[in-house]
Design goal:
The chain is of the alpha/beta class. 45% of the residues lie in helices and 12% in strands. It has eight helices and six strands. The protein has a six-stranded parallel sheet, sandwiched between helices.
Protein backbone atom coordinates (compact mmCIF):
# COMPACT_ATOMS: atom_id res chain seq x y z
CA UNK A 1 0.00 0.00 0.00
CA UNK A 2 3.00 2.30 -0.13
CA UNK A 3 3.04 5.36 -2.33
CA UNK A 4 -0.52 6.71 -2.30
CA UNK A 5 -1.97 7.49 1.14
CA UNK A 6 -5.52 8.23 -0.03
CA UNK A 7 -7.95 5.42 -0.87
CA UNK A 8 -11.38 6.30 -2.22
CA UNK A 9 -13.87 3.43 -2.03
CA UNK A 10 -17.16 2.89 -3.75
CA UNK A 11 -19.73 1.65 -1.23
CA UNK A 12 -22.32 -0.74 -2.68
CA UNK A 13 -20.84 -3.90 -4.12
CA UNK A 14 -17.36 -2.86 -3.04
CA UNK A 15 -17.57 -2.55 0.74
CA UNK A 16 -21.22 -3.57 1.21
CA UNK A 17 -22.63 -6.87 -0.03
CA UNK A 18 -25.60 -5.97 -2.23
CA UNK A 19 -26.97 -9.49 -2.17
CA UNK A 20 -27.19 -9.53 1.64
CA UNK A 21 -30.61 -7.87 1.77
CA UNK A 22 -32.38 -10.40 -0.42
CA UNK A 23 -30.33 -13.32 0.91
CA UNK A 24 -31.18 -12.55 4.52
CA UNK A 25 -34.86 -11.75 4.02
CA UNK A 26 -35.56 -14.54 1.52
CA UNK A 27 -33.41 -17.24 3.11
CA UNK A 28 -36.04 -19.88 2.33
CA UNK A 29 -36.09 -18.94 -1.38
CA UNK A 30 -32.41 -18.71 -2.41
CA UNK A 31 -32.95 -18.90 -6.16
CA UNK A 32 -35.57 -16.17 -6.07
CA UNK A 33 -33.35 -14.14 -3.77
CA UNK A 34 -30.50 -14.19 -6.31
CA UNK A 35 -32.78 -13.26 -9.19
CA UNK A 36 -34.42 -10.49 -7.21
CA UNK A 37 -31.03 -9.06 -6.22
CA UNK A 38 -29.85 -9.01 -9.85
CA UNK A 39 -32.97 -7.30 -11.16
CA UNK A 40 -33.12 -4.87 -8.24
CA UNK A 41 -29.55 -3.71 -8.83
CA UNK A 42 -29.93 -3.47 -12.60
CA UNK A 43 -33.11 -1.41 -12.36
CA UNK A 44 -31.63 0.75 -9.62
CA UNK A 45 -28.76 1.79 -11.89
CA UNK A 46 -31.02 2.15 -14.93
CA UNK A 47 -33.41 4.43 -13.08
CA UNK A 48 -30.61 6.45 -11.47
CA UNK A 49 -28.90 7.18 -14.76
CA UNK A 50 -32.20 7.90 -16.49
CA UNK A 51 -33.11 10.36 -13.74
CA UNK A 52 -29.73 12.06 -14.21
CA UNK A 53 -30.15 12.23 -17.99
CA UNK A 54 -33.58 13.81 -17.49
CA UNK A 55 -32.14 16.42 -15.15
CA UNK A 56 -33.89 15.11 -12.04
CA UNK A 57 -32.30 15.45 -8.58
CA UNK A 58 -30.07 12.64 -7.32
CA UNK A 59 -31.95 10.56 -4.75
CA UNK A 60 -30.71 6.99 -4.69
CA UNK A 61 -33.05 5.89 -1.92
CA UNK A 62 -36.09 6.85 -4.00
CA UNK A 63 -34.50 5.10 -6.97
CA UNK A 64 -33.78 2.00 -4.88
CA UNK A 65 -37.41 1.86 -3.75
CA UNK A 66 -38.77 2.19 -7.27
CA UNK A 67 -36.36 -0.47 -8.50
CA UNK A 68 -37.46 -2.86 -5.77
CA UNK A 69 -41.12 -2.43 -6.72
CA UNK A 70 -40.25 -3.38 -10.30
CA UNK A 71 -38.07 -6.33 -9.24
CA UNK A 72 -40.72 -7.77 -6.93
CA UNK A 73 -43.28 -7.69 -9.72
CA UNK A 74 -40.89 -9.20 -12.28
CA UNK A 75 -39.88 -12.08 -10.00
CA UNK A 76 -43.50 -12.79 -9.16
CA UNK A 77 -43.58 -11.89 -5.49
CA UNK A 78 -46.70 -10.45 -3.98
CA UNK A 79 -45.24 -7.11 -2.98
CA UNK A 80 -47.13 -6.91 0.28
CA UNK A 81 -46.02 -4.22 2.70
CA UNK A 82 -44.16 -6.49 5.17
CA UNK A 83 -41.93 -8.09 2.49
CA UNK A 84 -41.20 -4.78 0.78
CA UNK A 85 -40.52 -3.06 4.09
CA UNK A 86 -38.29 -5.91 5.27
CA UNK A 87 -36.20 -5.76 2.10
CA UNK A 88 -35.79 -2.00 2.28
CA UNK A 89 -34.84 -2.20 5.96
CA UNK A 90 -32.24 -4.87 5.16
CA UNK A 91 -30.86 -2.78 2.28
CA UNK A 92 -30.44 0.17 4.62
CA UNK A 93 -28.17 -1.93 6.84
CA UNK A 94 -26.28 -4.20 4.47
CA UNK A 95 -23.55 -6.55 5.65
CA UNK A 96 -20.01 -5.55 4.79
CA UNK A 97 -17.84 -8.01 2.90
CA UNK A 98 -15.45 -9.91 5.14
CA UNK A 99 -12.46 -8.17 3.56
CA UNK A 100 -13.80 -4.64 4.05
CA UNK A 101 -13.03 -3.83 7.69
CA UNK A 102 -9.58 -5.52 7.78
CA UNK A 103 -8.58 -3.58 4.66
CA UNK A 104 -9.73 -0.23 6.04
CA UNK A 105 -8.01 -0.91 9.36
CA UNK A 106 -4.78 -1.81 7.58
CA UNK A 107 -4.86 1.42 5.58
CA UNK A 108 -5.33 3.39 8.80
CA UNK A 109 -2.55 1.50 10.60
CA UNK A 110 -0.13 2.26 7.76
CA UNK A 111 -0.94 5.97 7.96
CA UNK A 112 -3.23 6.11 4.95
CA UNK A 113 -6.56 7.82 4.59
CA UNK A 114 -9.71 6.03 3.43
CA UNK A 115 -13.10 7.42 2.48
CA UNK A 116 -16.26 6.43 0.66
CA UNK A 117 -17.51 8.24 -2.41
CA UNK A 118 -20.91 6.88 -3.36
CA UNK A 119 -24.02 7.45 -5.43
CA UNK A 120 -26.00 6.89 -2.24
CA UNK A 121 -27.45 9.84 -0.38
CA UNK A 122 -25.91 10.90 2.96
CA UNK A 123 -28.50 9.18 5.15
CA UNK A 124 -28.07 5.88 3.31
CA UNK A 125 -24.32 6.10 3.81
CA UNK A 126 -24.62 7.00 7.48
CA UNK A 127 -26.87 4.02 8.22
CA UNK A 128 -24.88 1.56 6.14
CA UNK A 129 -21.50 2.57 7.53
CA UNK A 130 -22.74 2.42 11.11
CA UNK A 131 -24.56 -0.90 10.65
CA UNK A 132 -21.47 -2.51 9.13
CA UNK A 133 -19.29 -1.00 11.88
CA UNK A 134 -16.96 0.63 9.38
CA UNK A 135 -17.28 4.10 10.90
CA UNK A 136 -14.23 3.79 13.17
CA UNK A 137 -11.99 2.77 10.28
CA UNK A 138 -13.20 5.36 7.74
CA UNK A 139 -12.18 8.99 7.65
CA UNK A 140 -15.21 10.21 5.72
CA UNK A 141 -18.22 9.19 3.62
CA UNK A 142 -19.08 11.52 0.74
CA UNK A 143 -22.25 11.47 -1.36
CA UNK A 144 -22.71 12.55 -4.97
CA UNK A 145 -25.69 14.54 -3.70
CA UNK A 146 -23.16 17.29 -3.02
CA UNK A 147 -22.51 17.67 -6.74
CA UNK A 148 -25.84 16.50 -8.19
CA UNK A 149 -24.46 13.98 -10.70
CA UNK A 150 -24.19 10.24 -10.32
CA UNK A 151 -21.00 8.39 -11.09
CA UNK A 152 -19.73 7.72 -13.74
CA UNK A 153 -20.46 11.29 -14.86
CA UNK A 154 -17.08 13.09 -15.00
CA UNK A 155 -18.46 15.90 -12.83
CA UNK A 156 -18.78 13.47 -9.92
CA UNK A 157 -15.10 12.53 -10.03
CA UNK A 158 -14.10 16.16 -10.48
CA UNK A 159 -16.06 16.95 -7.33
CA UNK A 160 -14.29 14.40 -5.13
CA UNK A 161 -10.92 15.52 -6.48
CA UNK A 162 -11.71 19.13 -5.59
CA UNK A 163 -13.19 18.10 -2.24
CA UNK A 164 -9.93 16.41 -1.30
CA UNK A 165 -7.77 19.13 -2.81
CA UNK A 166 -5.56 16.66 -4.65
CA UNK A 167 -4.45 15.69 -8.09
CA UNK A 168 -6.51 12.67 -9.07
CA UNK A 169 -3.36 10.70 -9.90
CA UNK A 170 -2.38 10.91 -6.24
CA UNK A 171 -5.18 8.64 -4.99
CA UNK A 172 -6.41 5.12 -5.49
CA UNK A 173 -10.07 4.76 -6.46
CA UNK A 174 -11.40 1.32 -5.54
CA UNK A 175 -14.64 -0.07 -6.97
CA UNK A 176 -16.20 -3.42 -7.83
CA UNK A 177 -18.41 -1.75 -10.45
CA UNK A 178 -16.64 -1.74 -13.83
CA UNK A 179 -18.45 1.41 -14.94
CA UNK A 180 -17.13 3.14 -11.81
CA UNK A 181 -13.61 1.83 -12.33
CA UNK A 182 -13.80 3.13 -15.90
CA UNK A 183 -15.09 6.51 -14.75
CA UNK A 184 -12.29 6.82 -12.21
CA UNK A 185 -9.68 5.81 -14.79
CA UNK A 186 -11.10 8.40 -17.18
CA UNK A 187 -10.65 11.00 -14.41
CA UNK A 188 -7.00 9.91 -14.02
CA UNK A 189 -7.37 8.30 -10.60
CA UNK A 190 -5.35 5.16 -9.88
CA UNK A 191 -8.43 3.08 -10.53
CA UNK A 192 -8.60 -0.41 -9.02
CA UNK A 193 -11.33 -2.79 -10.14
CA UNK A 194 -12.34 -5.35 -7.49
CA UNK A 195 -13.45 -8.20 -9.72
CA UNK A 196 -14.95 -10.51 -7.11
CA UNK A 197 -16.82 -12.66 -9.64
CA UNK A 198 -14.03 -12.88 -12.24
CA UNK A 199 -16.05 -11.20 -14.97
CA UNK A 200 -14.50 -9.80 -18.16
CA UNK A 201 -13.81 -6.07 -18.09
CA UNK A 202 -16.21 -4.32 -20.52
CA UNK A 203 -14.54 -0.92 -21.08
CA UNK A 204 -11.20 -1.47 -22.88
CA UNK A 205 -10.88 2.22 -23.75
CA UNK A 206 -10.66 3.09 -20.04
CA UNK A 207 -8.66 0.34 -18.38
CA UNK A 208 -8.17 0.35 -14.61
CA UNK A 209 -4.73 0.81 -13.13
CA UNK A 210 -5.04 -2.60 -11.49
CA UNK A 211 -7.48 -5.50 -11.11
CA UNK A 212 -7.85 -7.52 -7.89
CA UNK A 213 -10.14 -10.30 -6.72
CA UNK A 214 -10.39 -9.10 -3.12
CA UNK A 215 -9.81 -5.97 -1.10
CA UNK A 216 -7.15 -7.91 0.78
CA UNK A 217 -4.98 -7.68 -2.35
CA UNK A 218 -4.67 -3.91 -2.07
Amino acid sequence: MAGYPIYIFDAYGTLFDLSAATRNVLAEHPSNARLLAEIWRARQMEYAWTDMALGLPTNLWDTTTRALDTALQMVGFDADAPLRDDLLAAYAELDAYDDALPTLERISTKGGRSLIFSNANPEMLRKSVAAAQLDKALDEAVSVDNVGFYKPNPKAYAYIQAHLGIDSADAYFVSSNPWDAAGAANARFKSIWVNRLQHPYPFPAMLPYREVGSLLEL
